[in-house]
Each structure stands twice: as C-alpha cells, then as structure tokens.
Amino acid sequence: GSKEASITVDAPSDDVYIDAEDLSVKVEDTTGGDFEKLEVSSTAAVTKVTDTIDTTTVTLTATSTVTEGGVVTYTASVNHKVTGSDLVVKLANGQTITIPVGESSASVPFTAPNNVHNTNLDLSNKITDISGGNYEKTVAVGEPVTTVTDNPATPDVTTLSLTATDTVAEGGKITYTATLTNKAGTDLVIKLSNGETITIAAGSKEASITVDAPSDDVYIDAEDLSVKVEDTTGGDFEKLEVSSTAAVTKVTDTIDTTTVTLTATSTVTEGGVVTYTASVNHKVTGSDLVVKLANGQTITIPVGESSASVPFTAPNNVHNTNLDLSNKITDISGGNYEKTVAVGEPVTTVTDNPATPDITTLTLTATDTVAEGGKITYTATLTNKAGT
Length: 388
Known about the structure:
Blueprint: E1 21-25, E2 45-49, E3 55-62, E4 65-67, E5 71-78, E6 87-91, E7 96-99, E8 105-111, E9 123-124, E10 127-131, E11 137-141, E12 145-149, E13 157-164, E14 167-169, E15 173-180, E16 188-192, E17 197-200, E18 206-212, E19 223-227, E20 229-234, E21 239-242, E22 247-252, E23 257-264, E24 267-269, E25 273-280, E26 289-293, E27 298-301, E28 307-313, E29 325-326, E30 329-333, E31 339-343, E32 347-351, E33 362-366, E34 378-382
Parallel strand pairs: 3-11, 4-12, 13-21, 14-22, 23-31, 24-32
Antiparallel strand pairs: 1-2, 3-5, 5-8, 6-7, 6-10, 9-12, 13-15, 15-18, 16-17, 16-20, 19-22, 23-25, 25-28, 26-27, 26-30, 29-32, 33-34
C-alpha cells in the first residue's frame, strides 16, 4: 500500500588519504510488488563523498652524538603508511629522504664535517619540503641537533706559513704575510723573530703587516733578512704545525756617495812641514780607509774615525823664487763605502826663510897646462842649479 521506502548506510570511513569519490548505486534486482509490468530506471543514484582534511605528521630524527668524520643518520617517519606515490622529504642540508609506498619511514646517511678546530659546531637540520604520499595534509615535525665530538686519535692538522717581500731597496718597505691552510676558529696571534706581531682574525686564513726595511745609508750593507714564526696563541686548532721555512727578503743597497776631502797647510817656509789631512763625511766602518796622494804619500783613516793626517817636509829651495806645492788624491780604498768621491787639490805656498838663506857657491877652473898656441878651457861650476 506504500509508494516509497528508504534505508541509511555508512559512507566510506574518514582517513588521512586523498580519496574523495562519487558513489554510484543502481537497482540490480526486484522481487514482489504484484505489478503487471515493473520498469526499473537505468539512472544511478550518485552520492559525492568529500574528504575531511586529516593531518599526517612527518617527523625527522637524527643520531644524537657523532665523532667528527662519523656518520649521522637522518630518519623521516610518518604516522600512516605511504600510499599512491613515494613520499619525498627534502632537508635543509640539501639531502632528500624518499619513503616508498607501503612504508612508514626511511633514512639517509650524512658524514659529519672533519673540523680542524677544538670547538665543533653542532649539526642541525629540518624538513623544508614534503611531496607525494597521497596525504590530505602533511605537517613537518622535528629539528634534530647532533653533537659532534673530536676524534683525539686523529687530530686534524692546520699549517701556518710565513712569506715576505722578495727584494727591497734599503729604506723601503717589507710586507710579511702569514697564511693558514684552514680558517682560524678564534683570533690567531703570531709572534715573529723580528719582534713584530701578526694577527689572523677568526674566520680568516691570512693577514699581513708592513715594516720598514733597514734605513738607507752610505755603507755597503746589502743583506738577506730572515724572519721566522717564533710563537703563536689562539686559533682554536686541534693541531697547528708551523712551517720551519723562514721568510727571506733580499735588501739591496741604494748607492750613496761619501766625500773624501784633502786639505793642506796653506803656507809654509822652505824646509817646514806641510800637513795633509784627508776627511770623510761619514765615519769609517768595516776596514781602514786608505787614501793615496799624488806626492806618493798615503793617509790611513782608521775604523771609527773620520779624518787622519800625514806630514810632508817642504823642499829647502836655494832660489829666491819658490814653487808652490800642489797635491791631490789619486786612489781611495776600504772603509766599506758604497761610493767615494775625492774632493780637493790643495796648494801650499812655500816662502823663503830670510834668517837662514841657502848658499850656492860658484867656482872657476881652467886647463892645467897648455902649449903656446894651444887652447885653454875655463869652467864655471855652481853647487846648485841656477834658477834663472
């Protein structure tokens, strides 16, 4: 006696997967009703089943402690098994963990850095992206931190080397550069054998200082300056090896001139003493300075002195007219000077000594014997040469 009837059934159960669908139901068979002819509509009864968004948690875990150079295992886990497609989990350190369909976890290994410092940085990581797995919604959980410890059996070696300007002229500048094979963990203070200090800042591998080369002077003192690392503090290295190779700079001379001046007594009476004096404008070093004169004499200026003299006796001239005495430097040697220049050609006036005039005797001789009608020779002889 009725025209309709209904039943109520459960829709597909709530889950975490993307599985929204249309449920289509048709009449498959009928019995009873006492109809002459019953036609069943072919149109299906369709119900749209929508997802209710449920969250799946993707958790990242890691090895808690590892020695440097050891392996950290990163594991991604889900609280519902993967369906549909593999779940791809990207990490902040650039690695990717893939959990296959049907599984709920997977792992990847990561090698802890082999840190050269005593202080090791903790390793932190996190999930940066999640894709696949057919989940309605995923949430990343966990930012694991791994403590990295030193391996005392195999300390990592850092080498420190020192270099310098190859060649410099005296009075120039020398640059010393300290270089590490690894960055300093803290400021590294380096004491050099020349008393200078270089500081390499934390996070840097090298630093330099510039110092004055030996000053410019007149002496021959070109040299090789050799400087080594004497001591270091700081840097936070497990093991710091200092290169034993010295930083060597060749210091070349710039040629400076030293003047050697010759002076003499200005006036002297004949037979008197003329004093010749050689003077330098920089004291003698290294070896005595030997000055040769045109009159054949030699003046020697000792090391540490700047002048020396020699006496010379003026000729005792028998004439009223006296010749001036002139002299000059003919050769200079010794003294360790880069370059020497001779200056001065002194002239000494020689005067007569009226108190003691010099005597010249004139004698006349003749042929002792001659025959009459022969020749007689008369000879006049002076004890000194005639001046005029």
